[in-house]
Design brief:
The protein is mostly beta strands. It is built from 2 helices and 10 strands; from the N terminus they run αβββββαβββββ. Strands 1-3-4-6-7-8-9-10 form an 8-stranded antiparallel barrel.
């Protein structure tokens, strides 16, 4: 009997998560809002615009061997041209305002954006322009491209996981998590940043055409 009760409790606890995973919305949302699900077939061909209200970049930076400090960039813009039949026609362009960095260390964000580090006045944006998409399974893939920071451009590959796709708020919408690592010295950043900076990007795109 106890085991039956525990099983029932687990099922009830998981029900909202299972509903979201299948694309069903939780109770209480307006009917015009359609929740997404992890199905690539719901990403139809067309042009998508990055939704800057649902986007952010986390930079995980080594902190002198003790931890990984967390910085966040909030101002992004971009477009995705998607062709599910021919991935060679898919294109992604994203721009990040480097001065939009935030950190919980008082006054440190301004220092990072300043002339000692990111030089945001001289180089106000970082950009990524794709040159190839590769599927690895039903909901994962890789995006190869060129990343430019502080005037220096190098190849960079993102590992991308589909979070959800669906009808959205009146227009088709998709959301992904993308991760990669970059070497600070490739872009002229000080060695104090360590051997690698990990980037975690969570972003939604809405179809415009």
């Amino acid at each position: 009997m106890r085991r039956l009760c525990l099983t029932a409790a687990v099922v009830l606890a998981l029900t909202p998560a299972l509903a979201l995973a299948s694309g069903a919305c939780p109770p209480g949302l307006p009917p015009q809002i359609k929740c997404g699900g992890p199905d690539m077939a719901d990403i139809t061909a067309g042009t998508y615009k990055l939704d800057d209200s649902h986007a952010g970049i986390i930079a995980q930076v080594p902190h002198i061997g003790y931890s990984r400090s967390i910085f966040r960039f909030d101002k992004l813009a971009g477009t995705l041209d998607w062709d599910p039949v021919d991935l060679s026609k898919a294109k992604l362009n994203v721009t990040v305002e480097t001065a939009s960095i935030a950190t919980n260390v008082p006054g440190f964000a301004a220092k990072i954006a300043g002339d000692e580090m990111l030089k945001s006045k001289a180089f106000p944006t970082a950009t990524f322009v794709s040159d190839g998409f590769r599927r690895t399974d039903a909901t994962h893939g890789k995006v190869d491209g060129q990343f430019t920071l502080m005037g220096k451009t190098t190849p960079l590959t993102f590992n991308v996981a589909l979070v959800g796709a669906g009808a959205g708020f009146g227009h088709p919408r998709l959301g992904v998590t993308a991760t990669t690592s970059l070497k600070p010295t490739d872009y002229g950043l000080a060695p104090m940043f360590g051997a690698a900076i990990d980037l975690v990007i969570d972003v939604e795109f809405e179809k415009t055409s």
